[in-house]
Here is the input.
Amino acid sequence: MSPPTMEDVARAAGVSRALVSLVMRQAPNVSDERRARVIAAAEELGYRPNAVARSLASRRTHTIGVLLNDLHNPFFADSADGIIEEASSAGYQVLMATGTHVNQSHTAAIESFLNARVDGIILVGPRFTPEQISDMASHVPVLTLGSSSDGHGVDSVKNDEYRGACLAVEHLAGLGHTRITHVSGGRGAGADSRRQGYARAMADLGLADHVDVVVGDFTEESGAEAADELLKRAELPTAVFSANDIQAAGLMGRLAEAGIGVPEMVSVVGYDDTTFAGLYQLSLTTIHQPVAEMGRQSVRSLLDRMVGGRTEPRKLVIEPSLVVRRSTAPPR
Amino acid sequence: MSPPTMEDVARAAGVSRALVSLVMRQAPNVSDERRARVIAAAEELGYRPNAVARSLASRRTHTIGVLLNDLHNPFFADSADGIIEEASSAGYQVLMATGTHVNQSHTAAIESFLNARVDGIILVGPRFTPEQISDMASHVPVLTLGSSSDGHGVDSVKNDEYRGACLAVEHLAGLGHTRITHVSGGRGAGADSRRQGYARAMADLGLADHVDVVVGDFTEESGAEAADELLKRAELPTAVFSANDIQAAGLMGRLAEAGIGVPEMVSVVGYDDTTFAGLYQLSLTTIHQPVAEMGRQSVRSLLDRMVGGRTEPRKLVIEPSLVVRRSTAPPR
DNA sequence: CCAGGCCCTTGGAGCGCTCCAATCAACGGG
DNA sequence: CCCGTTGATTGGAGCGCTCCAAGGGCCTGG
Here is the structure.
C-alpha cells in the first residue's frame, strides 16, 4: 500500500532500477524504446519520485531557505514573491521562515535550514552578527537581500540606499525646501545608509545647518510618534524624509489628524515604493526599488554559486529611482 | 571533510549509533551519563543531524506545504505569517509556493509538494477542482484556508463570508442607505458567498429591488473599473459594498479623482480588514476576519490530523466582525 | 575475422538516519 | 540460587534513491 518506488517501476518495465533513475533524471544516453517503456510503467503505477531519497543520495536538496523579517511589510512580501517565482522556475523549492522580531527565532530558523541541508540561504532583512553570517556561510552559500550585514564573503543584493536618500533630499531641495527633517529607521536594515545619505546630501546642498534626525524605526507607529514629536515643536519642518513608506503613512496620518495638510503644510517622501504608496489616498512621493526583481536576482546569484561554481562573493547594487506623487510640493 | 555523521559522534562518544539516535530524539530511556557523553561529543564535532536522512528513514518530513494565491494581497501575507509562526513553534517547516494566477503553476507546486513528501498541505485561496483536491488529499492531509473549494474530505478554515456580507449590508442599511451596490469578487475565493450574503441581506431588509451587482475581482484595478462603470450611470448608488479591501481602495481612489467624496456622496465598505484599511487616509469601514489566527488554526487542525490521528474532516468557521471607520456615513 | 570503441544497461555500494528485535546487566522474589 | 522482569544498549536491516565501475552488444577498420 505504500507508494510505488523506482524498484516497482523497474520491475513493471522490465529494466533495472538504475535505468529508471536515468530516465527520471532525463539523462541523454537512454534508448527511446526503453525510455518510453519506463515512462509508461511509471505513469501506470502512479509513480512519484521521492525527493527525500533523491536528496539523500545526491546530496542536493534543490531547496533554498528564505528568512524574512516581517511579512506584513509589503517590501518583504514582494521580495518573497520574486524569490519564489525565480526559484520555482529554476526547479528549486523554497523553505520559508520568519523571524518574529526576536533574534533567537532567527537563529533557530537558520538552524533548521542547515539541518534540512538547504542548498542556499537568502536573508531578507534580519540583522546577524558578522560571526553568525560567516558561520552559516561556511556551511552553505548565503545571500543577503536588502540588508546591510554583508561583507563577510557572502553575496548580497541591495539598492543603493545612500543614493536613494540623496534623490529624496535633492527632490525636496529642488522644490525649495530647506528645513528637511529625516525620521530614521533606527537599527533596521538599511537605516544607517539612508540616514547617512540624507546627511551627506544635505551637506552637499549647503543645508548642513538644517540636518535634523528624529529616531524611529520601520513601523507605522513610529511614524505617528515622530509626528507627535514634530508637533510639539515651536515650528514644523517644511518637509520630512521618512525612512520607509509605512512609517511615512503613519506620519501623514497623525499629521492629518492634527489638521496639518500634506503637502500644503509639510511635504513627505517615503522609501520603498511599496504597494500602498501608490494608493490614491496616500499618493506618496517615494524612492522606488525593484523589489521583486531584486528577489529574482538574488536567486540567480545564489544558483550561480550553488551550481555555477562561483566562489568569490558578488555584491549587486541596484539603482533606486524617485517616484513623484502628490505628497510633495514647494513650501508655502 | 564532509560534515560529521551520527557514526562519527558514536565513535567519539564510545557508544553505538543507535544510542546517539536515541539521544538526538530525546528518547527517555537513556542513562544520564551516556546522554551527557553523547551530547558532549556531538557538540565537540559540531554535529548537525541530517534532516533529510531522518525524513527518509522515519517517513515523516516535518514539513508542510503552503500554496498561496498572491502574496501581494496583505490577506495572504497575514495568513502566511500565522501559518509559519504556528508551524515553527510545533517544530515544522514550511515549504512555500505561490501560484502565479495560472492554474498550471498551482498543480506544479502541488506536484513538488508531493514529491517532497510533505506531511500536510495548506491551500490558501487557489481554486482547484474537487477531483484535484481529493486526489491530493488521498496522498496527504489537506486543508483549505479561506477558500470555498472544500467539502471533499479535507479540512477547512474560513470565515463566514455570508455572515460578513450581511454585517456590511446591515450596517449600511442601518445608516439609512437603500441603494447599495455590490462589486463582486468574480471567481475568486469566497466571492460567491459574499455576493449571496449581500443578496440575501438585501432581501431580508426589504431591499430586494435595489440589488445591484457589478462584476469585478479581488484587485485594485477592478475597483477602479467598477467606479468608472458607476460613474457612467445617470445616478450613483449611495453606498457600495466592495468584495475586498484592495478593490475598495481602487474604487475610492477613482471616485475621489472624479470628485466624488467618500463618505459624503458614497459610503464604502470593504472586506478583510487588511493592514491598509486602517490607514488614516483610507479609514475604510470593513469586515474583519482574524487572518493570522486563522492561519494558526489551520496548522493546528492539520497537525491534529497528521499526528493526532483524526480522520474525519473538520470545518472551522470563524465569525467575522464589522469594523466601522470613516468611509461610511448616512446618505445625504 | 578480430581488436578496439562506442553506447546502452546493470549490479552494487553507499547517502545518514530510524526502528526493531535481540542482548545484556542488574534486581528481586520464590 | 535460579528465573522472570525491567531498563539500557546494540547490531542490522532497511528507507528510496544516485553514482560508479563494469558488462554486453554492435559497428568499424585493419
Q: What stands out?
A: Chain A has a mean pLDDT of 93. Residues 15-19, 22, 29-31, 34, 53, 55-59 of chain A lie near DNA strand C (CB under 10 Å from a C1'). Residues 74-89 of chain A form the longest helix (16 residues). Chain A touches chain B through 51 residues (CB under 8 Å).
